[in-house]
Amino acid sequence: MTQRILHHPILGKIEDNHYISFTFNNKVYKGLKGESLAAALLANGIRTLRYHENSGSPRGIYCNIGHCYECRVSVNGQQGVRACVTPLKEGMIIESGGQLQTSSKQGGGLENE
Fold first, then answer.
1. What pLDDT does 110 receive?
2. How many C-beta neighbours within 10 Å does residue 108 have?
3. Judging by beta carbons within 10 Å of its beta carbon (0-12, 13-18, 19+), is residue 68 exposed, middle or buried?
4. Which of 32, 88, 25 is CA-nearest to residue 51?
């Protein structure tokens, strides 16, 4: 029995026998081709994906369906990628990116830029 997510509500069914390599914060890991980045990281014991923009507190997987944006990481140099809905591909370079930039806040909401 596996504890991996083999049937994702957005990404679909994942084959549980095709492992590939990826890098997270300069360390090489293995994951299943097509599983979400969040699932691959979680399966490798990684719980912290980034840090809160204001408080610096650790952030990780929350909703796991792409709504909350807590799992944002940088992938191949592109910031703000949602790890929970992005399929893992061979050779991806994933970085926690520390504290990511946010939009300006006014009146409690985010402004469109």
1. 41
2. 5
3. middle
4. 25
pLDDT at 100: 53
**Spans of the chain, pLDDT less than 50:** 1, 104-113
Phi, psi of 42 (to 5 degrees): -60, -40
- Residue 40 has phi, psi (to 5 degrees) of -65, -40
Residue 42: count of CB within 10 angstroms of its CB:
22
The DSSP-derived string for 74-108 is: EETTEEEEETTSSB--TT-EEE--SB-----EETT
CB 102 within 8 A of CB 53: yes
